[in-house]
Automatic annotation (TrEMBL):
Ranges where the TRAP C4-dicarboxylate transport system permease DctM subunit domain occurs: 217-645
UniProt keyword terms in alphabetical order: Cell inner membrane, Cell membrane, Membrane, Transmembrane, Transmembrane helix, Transport
Keyword Membrane included in the entry's annotation: yes
Keyword Transport on entry: yes
Name of the protein in its database record: TRAP transporter permease
Segments traversing the membrane: 41-60, 72-91, 103-123, 143-163, 175-192, 204-223, 230-253, 273-295, 398-417, 445-476, 496-518, 530-555, 561-579, 586-609, 621-643, 655-675, 681-714
Length: 726
């Protein structure tokens, strides 16, 4: 028997409340679009998605574009596709839409006039520059480009909030936003490919750059609201308000201030939206999303899940252990924790419930395991690439440093799952419910894409070249399996990749706005000073403070955006405390990741609760408990650099063994199960104390931890004897 995965794709995740993806979340995106779009409309959407992915592959591997131009087209394409596929309010039937919201269509049609006029003016600007003009007249930019663009963008956004869109056709308000997105991109391509680029941030900057940046920022925030909810939008707006309110704030928050024109002439440059977050999303992230789509289209990704079932499904609580392995494999490629939950949890959560896990526990295990995928080397959900971009540390060094912390996290989740299965007497899955391990082993060549990726990276190939080789290998190995990839399947993969990419691209662009505010206002440096002041009292207190800020900034945000923002605010302060940059950024990265399972805003837990049918808040609390090691591991490698491979081999091995024993004891103490019997409160406290001592990493503390663990074991042995006698 071969398990078939529930046909979910990676893009149907983290959708804000009342905002629904235009293709049905229970269907493959291509088939769903065939239902929702018709005839020429379907062909247009499909072609647009395929061209968008193909453009990235062509530009990354064959004919690279100028950097800023490439990033501008990258964002513009995501905006155009996003406004096609995501509704501003909600979907309705054709009868409801025609009867109730005809007025929004008429207002949108009126707004199309200035939108197309702005697009025409951009073309005329290009002609002027081609004819030798050094600058565009201010009046022309202001009255014939800037204000019409803002008017069309504003009307389009507001109308989209009220327009209840019909599923089978585009809405006119969204068409306004599409035209405005193209106009913004066209203007930036014209302006930034001349000497005008050098004037950004000065009083000589063309006013049109500021107008285009305001409209572009509004479009990015609107699409972010549709695909990721309000959390990131609210945070972004708070930072934007700070730009202009900062001069009036007291204490360390105050700064001299920036004018509207000066700020917005810089925010749509590599100091903000076109900066590190977009640099990574336009190269590494989009490439690995296409790779994930190839794995999905070739069914190689299904093999990973089936292999995990064959290997671990028979053990007690088998589906939960399968969830750990499958989520680790798929989560390192997927860019969001909640996306990983949807892709693997649709299969593992129902099976966990079948073998005895409660709804809450099943969702919590999947959420914790899927979140761990984001810290799984070598890809780490694209976090490794952002870290390399921000810090300048070689990618291979980051991937190697992530190995032991990832082992500790997944070991902790595994121990939790195993202890709970033993505590509640759960069984594994029956032989006839599982794929045959022997059959799976014969198809082990399907692991080749991952092996080729890892080997190519460590042989010194560029990330782009290694990812492309892995992508091609996924297609090639499929020819030796029942699911051969032909031209149709390759085009299908390119289409799926575009749908998968929209959310993470626009979220990275929105995070770029926040990063731009931090860098242009200097608030990050002032936060570093505050952190230094706290550290004078206690370095541990400063680390705890940094932990809370990282989690707070990451709540409600996908991993990449959460880390990018936290790295801009918190990491510089940790570096100034004397912490090594690699350790500081790993510290921030881990807490940005685990914000996905931290109440009250735990996106991964909420996604899992939606599948399991459990209460969302209860699931988030349970997933927080299961993933508790992730909140301790960063402190472990702060106090013991050997856990980040920054020591000799003997010290690294000793640190790994003692830390593994520590998380084992921690799991027993948190769950209340040790020595095959329920633990008393005294034994649980002893286990947690022993775990913390083992985690610290010193020889004396390790011996003390072993002593406490031995005492707890003796207590549990006596307890077991008493229970057996009774």
């Amino acid at each position: 028997m071969t398990l078939e995965r529930h046909p979910k794709d990676f893009s149907d995740v983290e959708v804000g409340e009342d905002h629904v993806l235009a293709h049905d979340v229970d269907q493959e995106p291509v088939e769903a679009n065939r239902r929702l779009f018709e005839g020429g409309m379907l062909k247009f959407v499909t072609l647009l998605a395929i061209v968008y992915s193909s453009f990235h592959l062509y530009s990354l591997n064959i004919a690279p574009l100028e950097t800023w131009s490439f990033r501008i087209v990258h964002i513009a394409g995501a905006l155009v596709l996003g406004f096609v596929l995501f509704a501003g309010a909600r979907f309705v039937s054709a009868e409801e839409g025609s009867a109730r919201h005809r007025w929004t269509t008429w207002v949108g049609a009126v707004a199309l006039l200035p939108a197309f006029y702005v697009l025409y003016q951009t073309y005329s600007f290009w002609q002027m520059i081609q004819n030798g003009a050094m600058r565009i007249p201010v009046d022309l930019e202001t009255w014939h480009f800037g204000w019409p663009l803002l008017a069309a963008t504003g009307v389009g956004i507001v109308m989209s909030w009220f327009h209840q869109r019909e599923r089978s056709r585009f809405s006119v308000p969204d068409l306004v936003l599409i035209v405005c997105s193209i106009a913004v991109a066209a203007y930036f391509l014209v302006a930034f490919n001349t000497s005008m680029r050098m004037s950004t941030g000065t009083s000589f900057a063309p006013v049109g750059i500021s107008f285009a940046a305001v409209a572009g920022t509004a479009l990015i925030m609107e699409l972010t609201r549709r695909v990721a909810g309000l959390a990131l939008v609210i945070i972004g707006l708070v930072f934007l308000v700070y730009v202009f309110a900062g001069p009036y704030l007291p204490g360390f928050l105050g700064y001299p201030g920036l004018s509207v024109q000066r700020f917005f002439s810089q925010v749509y440059t590599d100091a903000g939206i076109l900066g590190p977050t977009t640099a990574v999303s336009s190269t590494y992230i989009i490439l690995f999303i296409i790779f994930a789509a190839f794995l999905q289209s070739s069914k190689v990704g299904d093999y990973f899940v089936n292999f995990a079932f064959a290997a671990a499904g028979r053990s007690r609580g088998g589906p939960a252990k399968v969830s750990i392995f499958a989520s680790g494999l798929m989560g390192m490629i997927n860019g969001t924790s909640a996306g990983n939950v949807v892709s693997t949890g649709s299969l593992t959560i129902p099976l966990m419930k079948k073998v005895g896990y409660s709804k809450k526990s099943a969702g919590a295990v999947e959420a914790a395991a899927s979140t761990g995928g984001q810290i799984m080397p070598p890809i780490m959900g694209a976090g490794a690439f952002i870290m390399a971009e921000i810090t300048g540390i070689p990618y291979t060094e980051i991937a190697i440093a992530a190995i032991i912390p990832a082992i500790l996290y997944f070991a902790s989740v595994y121990f939790m799952v195993d202890f709970e299965a033993a505590k509640t007497g759960m069984r594994g899955m029956r032989e006839d419910e599982l794929p045959k391990l022997r059959t799976m082993a014969k198809q082990c060549y399907l692991f080749l894409p991952i092996i080729i990726l890892v080997v190519a990276l460590f042989m010194g190939y560029s990330v782009i070249r290694a990812g492309t080789l892995a992508m091609v290998s996924a297609a090639v190995v499929s020819w030796f399996s029942p699911n051969k990839m032909g031209i149709r399947q390759i085009l299908n993969a390119l289409e799926i990749a575009s749908y998968m990419a929209i959310q993470i691209i626009v979220v990275c662009a929105a995070a770029g706005v926040i990063v731009g505010v931090i860098s242009l206002t200097g608030v990050g440096a002032r936060f570093s000073v505050l952190l230094l002041d706290v550290a004078e009292a206690s370095q541990l207190l400063a680390l705890v403070f940094a932990m809370f800020i990282s989690i707070l900034l990451g709540m409600g945000m996908p991993t990449t955006a959460a880390y990018a923002v936290a790295a801009s605010v918190v990491a510089p302060g940790l570096v100034q405390l004397g912490i090594e940059p690699l350790t500081a950024h790993f510290f921030v990265f881990y807490f940005a990741v685990v914000s996905a399972i931290t109440p009250p805003v735990a996106l991964a837990s909420y996604a899992a609760a939606g599948i399991s049918g459990a209460n969302a808040m209860e699931t988030s609390v349970a997933s927080f408990r299961i993933g508790i090691a992730a909140f301790i591991v960063p402190f472990m490698f702060f106090y013991n650099g050997a856990l980040l491979m920054e020591a000799g081999w003997f010290d690294i091995a000793r640190a790994l063994v003692t830390a593994l024993f520590g998380v084992y004891l921690l799991s027993g103490g948190v769950l209340g199960w040790f020595g095959n019997v329920t633990a008393s409160w005294i034994a649980r406290l002893l286990l947690i104390g022993a775990a913390l001592l083992m985690i610290e990493g010193g020889m004396v503390s390790d011996l003390a931890g072993i002593g406490l663990a031995a005492l707890a074991f003796l207590m549990q042995r006596q307890r077991k004897s008493r229970l057996a006698a009774a």
